[in-house]
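Minimal example, chain plus flavin-adenine dinucleotide.
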Amino acid sequence: MHSPIFSLEVFPPNTRTSVNTIYDTMDGLKEVEPDFVSVTYGHGAFKDRTRTACIAATIHNEYGFPVVAHLTALYSDEAIVDQALQYFHEAKVAGVLALRGDPVEGNEPCGVFEHASDLVAYIRSKEPGMPVFGACYPEGHVECSCLEEDIANLKRKVDAGATHLLSQLFYKNDDFYRFLDLARGSGIEVPIEAGIMPVVNVRNVETMNQRNSTSIAPALQRMIDRWGSDPKALRQAGVVYASEQIADLVAHGVDGVHLYTMNRPSVARSIWQNVEGLFGRA
Ligand code: FAD
């Protein structure tokens, strides 16, 4: 039996901060031994497009972890994608996570890549050997009328060449298992990693709920009711909750777990200490 994949997501520090602050995050994550680290892409027309590649190079060169660089479609044309792929090559990335991104008010999308699948197909045509990752949504993407329709679109993304899927966060494992059954039933065979975002504060849960309609499990709601005004206790409970989610996912034989670190290495480290033996590393 193969050990499941364990991967991490970090994000570039904002443009007012030195990229070097990523060292604090990565120093804190050194002992976690991820299979890869994914680096998000600042979306929209005015972001510094070199930042993801810069961070990817730092993580690869200084820490020796394989890196998957995110890239978004809506505000990119072919020239922007070609430039990003060039930067990613120089940063020696192990893969690209091709995303649509979300519309930013007041900014007109380029109109070249409408869906993530268009970007996946373009990257595959330019870089046939490059692993291209895609996003998936255990509760369905917010814009989709139902999970089945979203999975049909996900199949298009895989048919366009996505080789690996990373899921949106979820708090109820049963949602992920249902999604997995439907995805496999629709003929999607690529690895699908389960996205876990530890609860670190109430605001963070509310934001995810508003942005992605992530449903809140009764057990999680009880934690928030009890420790919502005690940040330290809620963080500890959040570590336990995420660790239990991960243990159950691994027991179910999932392909892997993708942990959203939110650049909070101490939380990721505490979770890793609870679960590392489940990934065949301890
Ligand atoms: P798509 O796959 O294009 O799907 C978007 C919607 O369109 C869905 O409702 C889908 O069902 C529908 N759809 C897809 N294809 C078709 C089609 N052919 N016809 C009709 N409908 C279709 N955002 C960032 O800005 N930067 C990041 O770094 C980033 N990282 C992320 C990492 C992960 C793991 C996840 C899950 C999300 C991330 N996001 C990021 C957010 C993401 O950009 C948004 O969730 C966005 O709304 C959808 O992106 P997508 O790639 O899933 O889009």
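The mean pLDDT is 94. The two ends are 16 Å apart (CA to CA).
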